[in-house]
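Try it yourself: sequence plus zinc ion, in.
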Amino acid sequence: MPGKEVAVGIDIGGTNTIFGFADRGGNILAEDRLKTTHYEEVEVFVAALYEKILVTAKKISEPLDIKGFGIGAPMGNINKGTIEHAAGLPWKGIIPLADLFRKHTDLPVVVTNDANAAAVGEMIYGGAKDMKNFVVITLGTGLGSGFVIDGKLVYGHDGFAGEIGHTAIRPGPSNRDCGCGRKGCLETYVSATGLKRTLLKIMADSIEPSDLRKYSFEELDAEIIHDYAKKGDHLAIRAFQHTGRMLGFKLADVVAHTNPEAIFLFGGLALAKDLIFEPAKEYMEENLLSIYKGKVKLLASQLSTQNAAVLGASSLIWTNEIK
Ligand SMILES: [Zn+2]
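Structure, out:
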């Protein structure tokens, strides 16, 4: 008896790698994860990931007919199946990810940028179902972006279109170092790590008391800052406001480049809701060219944080136009 047709969607993030088995209707039958940061060697990582995928598949009660592996990763290149110089991952240089996967399987393996995968997920299963022009911004350890224009995901000449995380928001030699080797990139401000850097700067410049001061650099993360902001901690709220404004300022440029109907925010920081959306919306509107004002929707991803990336990655196997 043939099994249920599924695609394995894999989202490789700077901290965690999440994978799931998705059917054509976008239902995830099972999901699991492993820590990306535990693997210094990418070959060991791929072997461990493949093994864990097989173990998880066996736990699903019905027989599966796996159609392929769709992988979203920072600096993932759909043309070559590579990850190239991803600042936020443990592996440097050009990683032949699809080829490494093919050592374990003869099934199709498709690699793309994680934000592009999230955009495909949003388009097929989420809030962008009826849209032809939209942008998805992923806010995780770093910042990714996927652009859909006239119903098509934009890949560009080399497959690397849409890296707004590495466009400058504060250019100049005295600005924040980015993992990409440059300075003042958007993701050094607008990301989980950017938020933490901003909070630490605010704490250093201020004498206002805050319980956040008891945390060490290592202990602090975006979730803790979010918790304190919800409780009304002024420094945490200021850190979110600053992050949201930087994002909004850059989004005004994004709108001028692609004239989207909507911009979706996806990922951990997007869960902070008004804390990030309000300043982002305000600064975007304030900086928009008048022809765009009041027209661009800034929305939360309609898919749950983990599912969009996994669904998007899995749908790479279903979509014919992306090869
Ligand atoms: Zn950068």
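One thing you can check immediately is this: The domain at 129-302 is CATH 3.30.420.40 (Nucleotidyltransferase; domain 5).
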